[in-house]
Design a protein that fits this description.
Blueprint: H1 5-10, E1 18-23, E2 26-30, E3 36-44, E4 47-55, H2 61-76, H3 81-97, H4 100-111, H5 117-135, H6 145-157, H7 161-180, H8 210-221, H9 227-239, H10 243-247, E5 254-255, E6 260-264, E7 271-275, H11 278-291, H12 314-321, H13 333-344, H14 350-356, H15 375-394, H16 397-404
Antiparallel strand pairs: 1-2, 2-3, 3-4, 5-6, 6-7
Helix pairs in contact: 4-5, 4-7, 5-6, 5-7, 6-7, 8-15, 9-11, 9-12, 15-16
């Protein structure tokens, strides 16, 4: 006789496991400990097998019968329901342990710790915002180039072409990591080279006309904010380093006796040496009584112990407060200012300027010069540059003409 809900509910354990049959192979197994398990007895290819369908009361009698009927439909199509269940479980495990998101986070945790925090944050933000929602749960080995192209096209459609290109690069690194760790055999991102629209190269906004530069320098001198930010503003055009390197300047790396600042270049982790002009030394000496007891020259005001540098946007925000928009000048733009005016007006040697900007400079044999070379020449160049900025700031046209050999500034 078929089982009833009452019979199942009132079933009691005995000295031995007890089977209560319902029909078409379905039965309830009552264990000696009182557990109640649904089982399906069936034959496939002449072999008798047993399939677990769950436990009571989590799986009711009706649900057990539904599962039995689904298994019988598989049998009618010559599919072993036991093998089908194992395959479904394996697929779930694959999605859980070898999904793109799981492997991407594993790669991010172990392979990006050498990157600067800001760069790491941008990578994980791109992955979480633009990649994981669409393919994060997919087994990484099952992702195809057309599927990946569809994901990156979403980014392009919001006019973020460069973001799409960088996101694709992040994805490619994840796939290469998966290949190395034996969880993928190919990188579909590699097959999409050339599939995304090209982007027009954009340069950091910079002032390259001396008269406008003079206006900016005078505006910086009139800045009414705190001394830390004002000092950073004044040093930016004098040192022409990357904004991230300037804000992370440490007092221990500044040598007032030799008038030098030594640090590792952010991008290449190579030692770089910056000669300090008399004007730069004066600004640093004026600031040292305020922040010299801490690690950073320009500490974050929200960290009283000085353990963190000022924010990435501090200098840019100050420039905006002075009335200079993002399209006019940026902290990074001072490097282009130096490169352009230094070459056109002061006739500085190109290789000396490239050294000063910590760019990769090579000799005729293709070998990279040491970043500490040409120190005497660069020291003289940076002092001339600082003196030239002073001339522009004060409007001493005669001195400017004498310095540049030109009747126009």
């Amino acid at each position: 006789m078929p089982l009833t809900d009452t019979a199942v509910r009132l079933a009691k354990p005995g000295e031995k496991p007890k089977k209560m049959f319902d029909g078409h192979g379905l039965f309830l197994l009552v264990t000696k400990a009182g557990g109640k398990c649904w089982r399906l007895k069936y034959r496939h290819l002449g072999v008798e097998k047993l399939l677990a369908l769950g436990t009571y009361p989590e799986i009711t009698l009706k649900e057990a019968r539904d599962r039995r009927d689904q298994a019988r439909k598989l049998l009618a199509n010559d599919v072993d329901p036991g093998d089908n269940k194992k395959a479904a479980k394996a697929a779930t495990t694959e999605r859980t342990t070898n999904s793109f998101e799981v492997i991407a986070r594993e790669w991010f945790a172990g392979k990006t710790d050498h990157m600067v925090p800001g760069h790491r944050k941008r990578i994980i933000d791109r992955l979480e915002k633009d990649i994981f929602p669409w393919i994060g749960s997919r087994p990484i080995s099952a992702i195809t180039p057309p599927e990946l192209l569809s994901v990156t096209q979403r980014i392009v459609n919001r006019t973020a072409v460069e973001t799409a290109r960088r996101a694709l690069g992040d994805v490619s690194r994840v796939f290469r990591y998966a290949i190395i760790t034996g969880r993928a055999t190919s990188d579909p991102a590699r097959d999409l080279r050339g599939a995304l629209p090209t982007t027009k190269e954009e340069h950091f906004a910079a002032i390259t006309e001396p008269d406008k530069l003079a206006e900016l320098l005078r505006a910086i001198d009139s800045y009414k904010g705190g001394l830390v930010v004002k000092s950073a503003l004044q040093l930016a055009p004098l040192l022409v380093v990357r904004p991230g390197e300037l804000r992370k300047m440490e007092w221990d790396s500044v040598n007032f006796e030799t008038k030098e600042w030594r640090f590792l270049v952010t991008k290449t982790k190579v030692l770089h040496l910056v000669p300090l002009s008399e004007q730069a030394i004066a600004i640093l000496q004026d600031l040292k009584p305020l922040t010299g007891s801490g690690r950073y020259t320009f500490p974050n005001p929200r960290t009283p112990d000085g353990s963190r540098p000022m924010s990435e946007n501090a200098v840019l925000a100050a420039l905006h407060n002075l009335g200079f928009g993002k399209g006019e000048v940026t902290g990074h733009g001072f490097r282009a200012t130096f490169r352009t005016i230094g070459a056109e007006k002061l006739k500085f040697r190109i290789d000396f300027m490239e050294h000063q900007l910590a760019h990769a400079v090579r000799d005729p044999m293709g070998r990279a010069y040491n970043r500490t070379e040409f120190l005497d020449e660069r020291r003289e160049m940076m002092q001339r540059w600082a003196d030239y900025l002073d001339m522009l700031r004060t409007g001493d046209m005669g001195a400017v003409v004498a310095a540049t050999g030109s009747t126009t500034i």
